[in-house]
Amino acid sequence: MSIDVLAVDVGKALDSVDEWLDSYITQPHEQLGRSGAVCPFVMPARRADAVETVVRLVGPAASLSLLKEIIRCGLDEFEQFDWQTSNAALRALLIVLPDLPHEAFGMLDEAHAQVKTETVERGLMIGQFHPECDEPAARNPAFMVSRSPVPLVAVRAIAVHDILFLGERADWFAQYHRRFGERYRSGSDGAGPLLMTAYHKALALHGTGAPPPTDSPEPRAPQPRGRAE
User: Fold this and answer.
1) Is the CB of residue 145 less than 8 Å from the CB of residue 136?
2) Which of 112, 132, 148 is nearest to 39 (CA)?
3) Which pTM does this prediction carry?
4) pLDDT band at 188 (very low <50, low <70, confident <90, very high)
5) 92-96 and 51-55 strand pairing
6) By C-alpha distance, which of 134, 147, 156 is closest to 16?
7) Mean pLDDT along residues 46-69
């Protein structure tokens, strides 16, 4: 193993992620376009001991295939983890990549885009974060909401607000509709006006049970779908 692989200060990286969660993710931001924390679920998740962090070193030869494999292994870890909370909606796994070099940040975006469909098929969501991430906030496309001091990937279960991120493709929406369509039919909680609008727009575009495409390539780059509700 090259000694360069070990040249990263893992403890410092984890402290930086923890500070980012405290000072940014769990706090309001004037550019979000709504009130509340950047991610309103992280604070209750942390209180419930439902946020787990793992470190993965990519070494001196980061590649797209390696990053995709790290994410896929993270999906397995998320599903197999012995969670301390019974509330599945609060569980989150942070895969921290402290030695990912600056020139590979775009590769992380690409890995996210290429693994997203299989992630959604498993009932999960992934989000990539790094210092130059260009994912916009759902309510303010001018605000790049997913910038973090250390590159990482977050894994969690699909939630009702994910219609904001899953309505653009028929196969993504089909997975979402199977899980949450009843909420919109019954008028039960969890679907406010913004989600209602997004859901019915996707429903009009795709119907309720469109099969996943078999010959469509994965998106080649992250698309403006936001990361924060």
Assistant:
1) yes
2) 148
3) 0.86
4) low
5) parallel
6) 147
7) 96
